[in-house]
Amino acid sequence: MLTGPPVRRRAKRSEALQTRLTAEEHAALRRLSDRTGIRASRLTRKAIRELVTGGVDLLNREQQAVLELARQIRLVGINLNQIARHLNRGDSASRSLAEAITELREALTESEFTWRRLVAAARARTVPEHGRD
Question: For the whole prediction, is pTM greater than 0.85?
């Protein structure tokens, strides 16, 4: 029987937060919401989680990109296992195996670059200060 990763259930949001903003802060939050297509409440929860945890709270499209990276890395692992099997059977490390290893290294380097770019972009998002966008 094949099973996937455990399903993470979203905690029920039972607590409300009421806060006062200046007109400029509210306008900046609305501009950010309009620009990103993300509701202001989601942006607020994201900011709180990032401040509390010190980590990055990825948005849905970023989470999808991370899942795709994980899939690609899993495929690289499968390829490495196949190469190891060939080598363990006594097959010589032919030119094609060396090329495959080089391609796998390049794929992992690209995946790492993509991951770092995603995290940097998530960390760079801020609510613009008064009057700036």
Answer: no
